[in-house]
Amino acid sequence: MDIPSIARLEEARLAVGCAEISEHTLPIKSGGVACRDLPGSWNNIAVGLGMNGPVAREEVEQFAAWYEASGIEPRIEICPLADPSLIKHCESLRFGVRNFDNLLYRELSGDEHVRPAQAPDSSISIRIVDKSDDAEVRTYSRLSMTGFSPPGFVPPESDFELWARVVKHPRTVSFIASIRDSRGTHDAGAGAMEVHNEIACLFGLSTLHEFRKRGVQQSLIAARLNLAASKGVRVATIGSRPGAGTERNVRRMGFATAYTKVILARAGPGLVANRG
Questions:
Q1: Alpha carbon distance 140, 187 (integer Å)
Q2: 184-196: strand order across its sheet
Q3: What's the average pLDDT block by block, 10 residues per block, for the chain (276 residues)?
Q4: In the CATH hierarchy, which fold is given to the domain comprising 109-233?
Q5: What are the φ and ψ backbone dihedral angles of 258, each rounded to 5 degrees?
Q6: CA 266 – CA 178 distance, rounded (Å)
């Protein structure tokens, strides 16, 4: 599958999925959607714009005003294959660069069995989260939110509620990795996957500090890829900040960069920035 095809599938998946788990959405006439939750939520972002052709300046003004009316900093994630009009309008409306995100991909075939790049700790076990078990959903959410956070970080309850919507989404499958030792069995990491048409996106990957360098991440990546392949998925994707540990791990398991997205935002007095 070529990169433009992957981009069309991935950006469409992202727009649909983000809209379905957000409290408020604003569909963009030319394509894409702006999603909104509580101030500071990671899903306060516009995605999928510009993939169907030119974007009108008024459309960018509209979603920016929609965020600002709720005290939220307007934020947009742009694929480099989006129509150039989108960048032009964002520039003229004083959006600035906040960050970059690599979209990596790996083609799959139904008859392959993916293994971690290095032999994982033999005490690691992987289980799929039962969506109907609220305690398991909360365990997954805690693991996903705290693996890359400073020690002692306690996520706000609103973030648990948002992640519960993600985990319980019908196209999402969530995994928890546990490690067994002389003290018992300990939940060590988590990762989820959304299957949408021919594509599966891996996300929410996190390992607790005390269990790192034991193969937890790679075990979770392999488990999700094998499930995706068994469902007939042609391409798996994952987003990562350039140079992050996630990117290094997935590259060792056959992923390559498809493209790099830019995240833009427009600061303003009293506007709350996205925590993501």
A1: 9
A2: 24-27, 33-36, 45-47, 75-78, 256-265, 96-107, 235-240, 199-207, 184-196, 172-181, 124-128
A3: 95 97 97 96 97 98 98 98 98 97 94 86 94 96 84 83 96 96 91 94 92 91 96 95 88 96 97 86
A4: Aminopeptidase (3.40.630)
A5: -90, -45
A6: 41
User: Are 109 and 229 spatial neighbours (Cβ–Cβ below 8 Å)?
Assistant: yes
**At which residue do the structure tokens 């140079």 appear?**
243
C-alpha to C-alpha distance for 214 and 174, rounded to whole angstroms: 20
Q: Per-domain residue ranges for the chain?
A: 3-102+260-265, 109-233
DSSP E strand stretches across 170-234: 172-181, 184-196, 199-207
Distance (Å, rounded) from C-alpha 276 to C-alpha 101? 12
Per the CB < 8 A criterion, the answer to whether 55 and 83 are in contact is yes
Distance CA 227, CA 221 (A): 10
Burial of 91 from C-beta contacts in 10 A (0-12 / 13-18 / 19+): exposed
Query: Of the candidates 84, 94, 16, 63, which has an alpha carbon nearest to the alpha carbon of residue 264?
Result: 94
Alpha carbon 237 to its chain's center: 10
Q: Which stretches within the chain are classed as H helix?
A: 3-21, 57-68, 84-92, 134-146, 157-167, 216-230, 245-251
Residue 272 to residue 41: CA distance in whole angstroms: 9
End-to-end CA distance of the chain: 30
